[in-house]
Amino acid sequence: MSDAEALSSWWRKIVGQAGPTPTVRALWFGLVELAAAEDSAWHLYVSGCREFDREDGSGDWACDAEWQPMERYLFLADLNAHAAHGTVTMLDHAVDLVRRLAPERSWPYFLEGVAVGFDDGDFELTWTA
How many CB atoms lie within 10 A of CB 40? Predict the structure, then answer.
């Protein structure tokens, strides 16, 4: 299964479990390396944020999650393959995936923005209202 197919399937499930979350104004798709028993792998995760500031280059608005689904982490094989080429390549891949997913279209409430990035600050806005 391609990363795009995996992301689409996972997102449909996540949105179906979203419940009443009208206070979420932005979605953050984060890139994080999770450690397993003897290995680690990169995952994409999602959280919903109460605040959004398109002018904030630090992404501080994404620090306090208002909504975090139970199954918020998704392993993506191609994302991990891109890890060998550095964080810029990984971010580009994830941004492309989220843009094609267009989560702002399927989120059940009003959104102001969607971003993809690393928790340490490198991120890109993929959509703003």
Answer: 12
